[in-house]
UniProtKB/TrEMBL annotation, chains A, B:
UniProt cross-references to InterPro entries, sorted A to Z: Arg_biosynth_ArgJ, ArgJ-like_dom_sf, ArgJ_beta_C
Site (Cleavage): A178, T179
Protein name according to UniProt: Arginine biosynthesis bifunctional protein ArgJ
SUPFAM superfamilies xrefs: DmpA/ArgJ-like (SSF56266)
Binding site for substrate: T146, K168, T179, E259, N378, S383
UniProt organism field: Streptomyces hyaluromycini
Gene encoding the protein: argJ
Length: 383, 383
């Protein structure tokens, strides 16, 4: 059900001809109200795509009536013309919906450095608008795919209200945010400030801790739209947890569909002196190409975990470090621990625990293995 | 000629049986004097192998009589026993040479987390000592190879004095230092303080800017030994340049032999506000897996260069960035530049220039492409 699981939203997904393949490439999500509160989180990459620069402005008013998303082109590094194209797209959506352009967020994904085919995109907006439906959520989720092999949706329904969402992302997945477009919707009655707080809290421990390949995109966008159509105002904690649950589920779906991956690796850092230390160590482990190759080869090469920990500034003593791989403590006190032959790595999920023995904080980062398929997928053609 | 190109040095390389393959695995380099000044630079990884911890102590006296190096085992993450083994190795060398153990540096390379077979290593020291020769430099260079496909040596001869050296390193190559063992020798008359200054200046712009796979080792060591046998005291600038030239040559040899690589990539950052900015940007580009895959596929995907630059804190304006690949300015002012079809990427060396348009400083980082062969080599077995 995706973005239309919550009441007060319609959506559509169509093939506008942006992709040469003829696959769906344009999605429209419309908040039919009565409220139009919204919050957004964007890439921390300083090279931001035109749609990110535009949508950041849109979110300043904290009111979003519609989101238009295209795959088949990122509209990044496209200069003033690229920004004009984003603006024209928002104007077109505003025109067909009878709203103001400043209430229309725009998201794009695909190859960097190529202008969008506006002669196809703008007519596509009209076609999509004509197909808007309370059942259009899945089609919208399909239309934003790039190298994704599956479309990603998630829904949490509570007592009279719902949070739902869709996501795309498969490569260039790294924090701040992971490379992706995400639109979340809710029919709960929630003010923009509260949406913002819940969204930032959720992304900090979900999407921001998904790090498939350490590469940060120019287009990452996560939007949360609230229609108020359920006429229910939930408690903050319950609402925030629902948003977090949907984000977590979508983040897991991103990792499971990461380009070329054969393993999903949960890197859990425990007993850190601070949460920041835990995140720094987790990220260092998650980005270690040699370790990611070893995991691909089902080799519990804990020395590569220790060498990754050693590059951080986190508080720890080398001779107190412990590492478990799939439940076997292969490294104890910085040296050889249990027999590495005991480690069973046949399954897709691999669980690494790094015990810093320096405090009581923890954090979990999700990553993938490094495979020949990843190399192939990212070298065989531009993406 | 390697480490025995300079007068006052003997060396040997033998197969002690540490490697199961039976290949050479033990090298000995001896400074026969009359002077024994020395300097060393070690990994900045906080998880340091036992031989690094030992050799750091040795270098405090700034006197080194001999260096014993083994491949076939890193003696890292091996606890107190590992340190005892390093100590025993130094004692053995001291005994056979009639010197003090505190003048014997130890270097190890190979798999982390495995104790060395001391029953083979210690007799090997005696065998190596018996074969010490002024022509032994090449054999020593061969004995320190791990996944290296070729041994690496370099020599610069000036007016009456020489700087020579050997290096190993193929994987886990990243700065501070790149994963490697390097022993440099000179017969010039140079005090330890001057050796130290020249060595740090040289490594800062050579080995520290070699970043094949972003993975930093536990065992990196670069040693510079001076025998004074040439009885010539060179000018500092000339000596420092000779040391830099040998380091640069060896660093280039490391990159050209990096595991699984098919391209050597020179990332040159120009017009940066500071040298630190240039290095930060260069490293970010050099570590971007997606870009490294694209280069492997001979795809001048400059969008991935810009997305890597955007993750840094360096001073720049996104719409003033320029990027050239093999001489073609494919990105101008943050957008589309010259036709990417003009870029010829058929050859092994690829030259990326990132122009930050923010100042006048520059730096060059060398890296490699990311290939299926790299994945294979680092997943098929423990290394």
């Amino acid at each position: 059900m995706s973005v239309t699981a919550a009441k007060g939203f319609t959506a559509a997904g169509i093939a506008a001809g942006i992709k040469e393949s003829g696959n769906p490439d344009l999605a429209l999500v419309v908040n039919t109200g009565p409220r139009r509160a919204a919050a957004g989180v964007f890439t921390s990459n300083r090279v931001k795509a035109a749609p990110v620069l535009w949508s950041e402005q849109v979110l300043k008013s904290a009111q979003v009536s519609a989101v238009v998303l295209n795959s088949g082109g990122a509209n990044a590094c496209t200069g003033p013309k690229g920004f004009q194209d984003t603006h024209a797209t928002a104007e077109k959506v505003a025109e067909v919906l009878g709203r103001g352009a400043i209430e229309v967020a725009v998201c794009s994904t695909g190859l960097i450095g190529v202008l969008l085919p506006m002669d196809k995109l703008l007519p596509g907006v009209e076609t999509a608008a004509a197909q808007l439906s309370e059942h259009g959520g899945e089609k919208a989720a399909i239309a934003i795919k790039t190298t994704d092999t599956v479309h990603k949706t998630s829904v949490v329904t509570k007592d009279g209200w719902t949070v739902g969402g869709m996501a795309k992302g498969a490569g260039m997945l790294a924090p701040g945010l992971a490379t992706m477009l995400v639109v979340l919707t809710t029919d709960a009655v929630v003010e923009s400030e509260v949406l913002d707080e819940a969204l930032r809290a959720a992304t900090r421990t979900t999407f921001d801790r998904v790090d498939s390949d350490g590469c940060m995109s120019t287009n990452d966008t996560v939007l949360l739209l609230a229609s108020g159509a359920a006429e229910v105002t939930p408690e903050y904690e319950e609402f925030a947890e629902a948003v977090r649950a949907v984000c977590d589920d979508l983040g897991q779906q991103l990792i499971r569909d990461a380009e070329g991956a054969s393993k999903d690796i949960k890197v859990e850092v425990v007993n850190a002196a601070s949460e920041d230390d835990a995140v720094e160590v987790g990220r260092s482990i998650a980005r270690n190409n040699l370790l990611k190759c070893a995991i691909h080869g089902e080799d519990p090469n804990w020395g590569r975990v220790l060498s990754a920990i050693g590059t951080t500034k986190a508080a720890f003593e080398p001779d107190r470090l412990n590492v478990a791989i799939n439940g076997v403590w292969v490294c104890k006190n910085g040296g050889v621990g249990e027999d590495r032959e005991k480690v069973d790595m046949r399954y897709r999920e691999v669980h690494i625990v790094a015990d810093l023995a320096a405090g009581s904080e923890s954090a979990t980062i999700w990553t993938n293995d490094l495979t020949a398929d990843y190399v192939h997928e990212n070298s065989a053609y531009s993406s």
